[in-house]
UniProtKB/TrEMBL annotation:
Residues reported to bind Zn(2+): 136, 139, 174, 177
GO terms for MF: DNA-binding transcription factor activity; transcription cis-regulatory region binding; zinc ion binding
Family: Belongs to the Fur family.
Protein name: Transcriptional repressor
Cofactor: Zn(2+)
Residue intervals passing through the bilayer: 6-27
The species this protein was found in: Caldisericum exile
Coiled coil: none
Length: 188
């Protein structure tokens, strides 16, 4: 209990100040990936969302606030249907058209990224900082991996190519599906 609380406090400081030793930084990143929630998400106030929307030239509406809040609070890379059913819990009279329109506005302003996978359904990511998507070819789950992509960007720029965005998707089989396959082979 005390270790987790202290470590969580240090993680908060790292998020805010960014000046912690390499070892502590490694454990902070590890901790954030395991928990998959950063304290910034939990402390994000409605006012902050409104400021973000206004800074991007968007009118503050309840659907925009709720959709943005949901996308920043999840790492599941939801589909439109999943976003709709989550937001419908707080906004009873929301429509699919509204969700699509809000998502298109967010994508256009760079607040949300569309994640392309081999599946038919588009998925959306509210975490726009550079990261890698690990996409399972069996179950379709998408996991985020936060690694430094600056070397990749640097190498690309050296070719004379102007980088506007980096979207790195790695396809494979997740631990859960590997474990299920291993267990089903053993039980035969």
């Amino acid at each position: 209990g005390i270790f987790v609380t202290s470590f969580f406090g240090l993680t908060i400081l790292w998020c805010i100040f960014g000046k912690v030793s390499r070892v502590l930084k490694f454990f902070s990143i590890w901790y954030l990936q395991k928990i998959k929630k950063c304290v910034i998400i939990y402390t994000m106030m409605k006012d902050n969302i409104e400021i973000i929307l206004r800074k991007n030239g968007l009118k503050v509406t309840k659907p925009r606030v709720e959709i943005y809040k949901f996308l920043k609070s999840t790492y599941s890379h939801p589909t439109v249907e999943e976003i709709f059913s989550n937001v419908k819990q707080t906004i009873d009279k929301i429509s699919y058209a509204t969700v699509y329109n809000v998502l298109n506005d967010f994508i256009e302003k760079g607040l949300v990224k569309e994640v392309s996978t081999s599946e038919d359904a588009k998925r959306y990511d509210g975490h726009i900082e550079p990261h890698v998507h690990l996409i399972c070819k069996v179950c379709g789950k998408i996991e985020d991996l936060y690694i430094d992509l600056s070397d990749v960007e640097k190498e690309i720029k050296e070719t004379g190519f102007k980088v506007e965005d980096i979207a790195l998707n790695v396809y494979g089989i997740c631990k859960d599906c590997q474990s299920k396959a291993h267990h089903s082979i053993k039980s035969k």
